[in-house]
Amino acid sequence: MQHYLNYIDGQWRDSSRQLEVINPASGEAYATVAQASIKDADLAMTAARRCVNQGLLTNVRPAQRVTWMLKAAEEIRQITEEAALILCLENGKNLDTARDELIESARYFEYYAGITDKIEGISVPLGKDYINFTQYIPMGVSVQIVPWNFPVSICARSLAPALAAGNAVVVKSPEVSPLAMTLLFKAIERAGFPQGAINLLCGTGSEIGSHLVKHAEVDQIVFTGSVATGQRILKDAAERATPSVMELGGKSAAIALADVDLDTLLSSVKLGIFYNSGQVCSAMSRLLVHRSRYDEVKKAVVELAKSLKIGDGAHNSELTPLVSESQQQQVLTMIEAARQEGATILTGGEASELKGYFVAPTIIEADQDMRITQQEVFGPVLAIMPFDDEDQAVEMANGTDFGLVAGVFGESLNQTMRVANKLIAGQIFINEWFAGGVETPFGGIGLSGFGREKGQEAIYSYVQTRNIGIRLNHHK
What we know:
Elements: E1 2-4, E2 6-8, E3 11-13, E4 18-23, E5 28-34, H1 38-53, H2 62-78, H3 80-91, H4 95-116, E6 130-138, E7 141-145, H5 151-164, E8 168-173, H6 179-190, E9 198-202, H7 205-214, E10 220-224, H8 227-240, E11 244-247, E12 252-256, H9 262-274, E13 284-290, H10 294-307, H11 325-341, E14 344-347, E15 362-365, H12 371-374, E16 381-387, H13 390-397, E17 405-409, H14 413-420, E18 427-430, E19 449-450, E20 463-471
Parallel strand pairs: 1-5, 7-8, 7-10, 8-9, 10-11, 12-13, 12-17, 13-16, 15-16, 17-18
Antiparallel strand pairs: 2-3, 4-5, 6-20, 11-19, 14-15
């Protein structure tokens, strides 16, 4: 059984403890990873602080950081096939999705390489007796806690802009899916970043995650994960007023208007809720359909769900297992709660007969106030509901505590834009779920969190503005 290590202060380190990593498609352990200790976490934070204090990332010309960033992207591309297979085995996702995740990770480093030497301040006019200007300076030591659903790409999403801006980073990997991230760090290590600039720890959130966010050396916290965990982190962050970026999930709705193109909608439903088995913070977990098209759309969506090929991700199945047994049970529990509340299970609703942590693709006819339509499921479960007019659709879409993404489907540009402008979400999709990319800002409103990742805007999450004012002496 292969064993993986932590990366601390430029060295790969083992630990006296280890965690088993389970293949979700079989339910069997197939690798182990060193479980970081509190001492390991302190060593990583000390290394990151030393890197910051010595200016190893910031005393060089920004063009040097560009070189490191581009080399990292090149090295990540070199490990795509090897790391994708590991990601598939530890996480359950299909092989194509895993490859895409590695490719996206390389794109983050390429994209932010282009910004690295363009993080420029401004001159502020104060009259002839003054010179005044601003600088963008790095936050310092950035602690980043990465979720298990897209561990490699979400890690790169925050690691790349943090390094571009000159921060040293300590990353905590998810204990259920940490292995491909070690290959990501080996690739970045080969890019030549200074010692202490990047550190990787695998440990439990309750021990290592909690210790890191409370640490005296932390200057910033970046977290993607559940609302409950994010709230606990923010309470700890409040003690030291530590700046944070929070991406906490959603309960996102797609609105299908009366003139929706059915094929366009179905393509997005397949991607929106069944991609990665619905384990996506921005998944299309609710579908609101104009009553005039409701029966037609409902029938088509059920047929779509029934047609999906379920199986091991290594075989590129369309619907793959959930990441763990506990995740599988959580999803099944929420489906059963919906049934108890009076919702109608149109298809699915149970574990697959296959070995492993599978849940059949599930379509549920529900009401607006049910738990299944108000709380994040994080599984292949779509709640479908009718609406009578545009105002009702908007009210229903906005009728949760979340605000991550939303979508509108219809042929009229005027109507789709009018509806989009009324939706409460950080990102709106029109006629294609997940429209966007590395270049487009991403983040939430309400319980979906705050701060923005991706795009040029994200770089400003990793810097702070410093103003310098100079009084000129005009005496001869």
